[in-house]
Amino acid sequence: MAEARDWHELQRPGLGDEFIDAVDSAVDSVLGFAAAHPVVYRRSRRFLLPRFPYCLYYRVDDAGIIVVACLHAVRDPEHHRRRSRANTRFVTRERLAYPVSASRAS
């Protein structure tokens, strides 16, 4: 996420924060309608971010969602299948548990 944010920020100042805001909105949408998005592999679902060519891959859990990956849409989807469980993030409505840049943490 930080790498994608930084890349967008280099393209235009402020665009990196807009990207993070789009991911935040995607997570909110997924939390509200987790089962609405297609299953693309086993239990993993995909949400296409509006405005940015990225996909949020996640799994539904009883208490929230598990974010598996946020990948550029042209990246090989096989990549998210090989990701280590250590790279996943558990997200609930109360706490967005994925890393954000230092500038957004304040």
Describe the structure.
The chain is α+β, with helices and mostly antiparallel strands and 106 residues long. The chain has one domain (2-96): YaeB-like fold (2-Layer Sandwich), CATH 3.30.2310. Helix content is 35%, strand content 26%. It contains four helices and five strands, in the order H-H-E-E-E-E-H-E-H. The protein has helices at 2-11, 15-32, 78-82, 102-105; strands at 39-41, 44-48, 54-61, 64-72, 89-91. Strands 1-2-3-4-5 form a five-stranded antiparallel sheet, covered by helices on one side. The radius of gyration is 13 Å and the shape is globular.
Q: How does CATH name the architecture? A: 2-Layer Sandwich
The profile of the biggest β sheet is: 5 strands, antiparallel
Strand order of the largest sheet: 1-2-3-4-5
Rg from alpha-carbon coordinates: 13 Å
In the CATH scheme, the class would be Alpha Beta
The global form is: globular
The CATH homologous superfamily corresponds to RelE-like
What is the succession of H and E elements?
Answer: HHEEEEHEH
Number of domains: 1
Low-confidence stretches: 92-106
Separate helix tally: 4
Question: What would the average pLDDT be, to the nearest integer?
Answer: 77
First-to-last CA distance: 17 Å
- Strand percent estimate: 25-35%
The counted number of beta strands is: 5
